[in-house]
């Protein structure tokens, strides 16, 4: 018996800074409905899918900054998406900026939520690898202020039994780290969902610009193959507030092969029926962790070294 799950990867085109939350949400609902028409069990939206990606510019007024965050999900800005998901019987994954109280302290997270076809939350993830810097870089054409605006996620890399399999989440920069996939793989992930806002240009290292699409594919394809998992990577695409974003939304099989990829830099839904049992040849074969992974022979790790820049 196979476990077939039809998944829609719902790429977002640019969201203008002045677009209302209601209009941004309506764009997601349109793609959710298209997903339903095309037979999706689950539709995956991107990182911070409700607003422009605001770490790309400096916001000094705390109240203005907080206006980009959700204090509750579901809440006034997102309830309509939950209601429509329940009406259609389609699950979804949504990235959003989360303002939460943890141990009596206000925290800001870059978060994602997994919601079942009944419109009820299954799990939540808070981004762990925050890229960029805390202090603005005035000579850069755009900023990358995630370290200034967000706290490091406090929920670990968890997995959930859902949609007939085991599902994990990570967000954007997390996808570049092998540890992300390996921890999720060790926790049994058969399906890894993630959204990303990746600029096509890196102002710090412009020599990497031609490699940005390659590094995107490389990270997700190797993570999928080395852990025998499906990976669904969903982008923000196109020019948003002066920043060109990569796009390249894709669905990757446990073989590491790309089985579906977006062709535009706009709102675009790509759909693929994923057989969760296609994970087996990898999880039970070459990447059977119990039989083949030899942690006890890797040698001691005595310190975590920081790479020093040359010179
Ligand atoms: N949103 C996010 O995490 N973006 C980063 C930009 C890094 S610039 C090299 C990413 O890893 O795609």
Could you describe the 3D structure shown?
The structure is a single chain. Helix 5 packs parallel to helix 6. Strand 6 (159-162) and strand 7 (165-171) form a beta hairpin. The chain starts with a strand and ends in a 19-residue tail after the last helix. The protein has one domain (4-289): Carbon-nitrogen hydrolase (Nitrilase/N-carbamoyl-D-aminoacid amidohydrolase). The strands form three sheets. It has a six-stranded mixed sheet with strand order 5-4-3-2-1-14. Strands 6-7-8-9-12-13 form a six-stranded mixed sheet, covered by helices on one side. It has 311 residues and is of the alpha/beta class. It has helices at residues 21-37, 62-66, 79-88, 146-149, 178-186, 212-227, 280-286, 289-292, and strands at 4-11, 42-44, 91-102, 105-115, 121-126, 159-162, 165-171, 191-196, 230-235, 237-240, 243-246, 250-252, 258-261, 268-275. The mean pLDDT is 96. 4-methylsulfanyl-2-ureido-butyric acid (CDT) is lined by residues 47, 131, 172-173, 176, 196-198, 202.
């Amino acid at each position: 018996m196979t476990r077939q799950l039809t998944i829609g990867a719902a790429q977002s085109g640019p969201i203008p800074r002045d677009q209302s939350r209601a209009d941004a949400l309506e764009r997601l609902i349109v793609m959710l409905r298209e997903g339903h028409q095309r037979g999706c069990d689950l539709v995956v939206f991107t990182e911070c899918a409700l607003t422009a990606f605001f770490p790309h510019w400096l916001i000094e007024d705390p109240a203005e900054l907080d206006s980009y965050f959700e204090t509750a999900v579901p809440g006034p800005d997102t309830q309509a998406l939950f209601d429509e998901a329940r009406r259609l019987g389609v699950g979804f994954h949504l990235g959003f900026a989360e303002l939460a109280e943890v141990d009596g302290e206000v925290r800001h997270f870059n978060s994602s939520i997994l919601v079942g076809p009944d419109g009820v939350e299954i799990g939540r993830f808070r981004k762990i690898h925050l890229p960029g810097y805390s202090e603005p870089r005035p000579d850069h054409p755009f900023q990358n202020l995630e370290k200034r605006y967000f706290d490091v996620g406090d929920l670990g890399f968890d997995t959930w039994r859902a949609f007939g399999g085991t599902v994990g989440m990570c967000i954007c920069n997390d996808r570049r780290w092998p540890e992300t996939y390996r921890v999720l793989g060790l926790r049994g992930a058969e399906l890894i969902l993630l959204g990303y806002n990746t600029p096509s240009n890196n102002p710090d290292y412009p020599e990497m610009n031609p490699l940005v699409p390659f590094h995107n594919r490389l990270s997700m394809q190797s993570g999928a193959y080395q852990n025998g998992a499906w990976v669904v990577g969903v982008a923000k695409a196109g020019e948003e507030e002066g920043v060109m974003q990569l796009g390249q939304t894709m669905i990757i099989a446990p073989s590491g092969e790309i089985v579906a990829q977006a062709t535009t830099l706009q709102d675009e839904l790509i759909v693929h029926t994923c057989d969760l049992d296609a994970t087996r040849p990898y999880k039970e074969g070459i990447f059977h962790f119990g039989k083949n992974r030899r942690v006890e022979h890797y040698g001691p790790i005595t310190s975590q070294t920081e790479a020093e820049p040359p010179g």
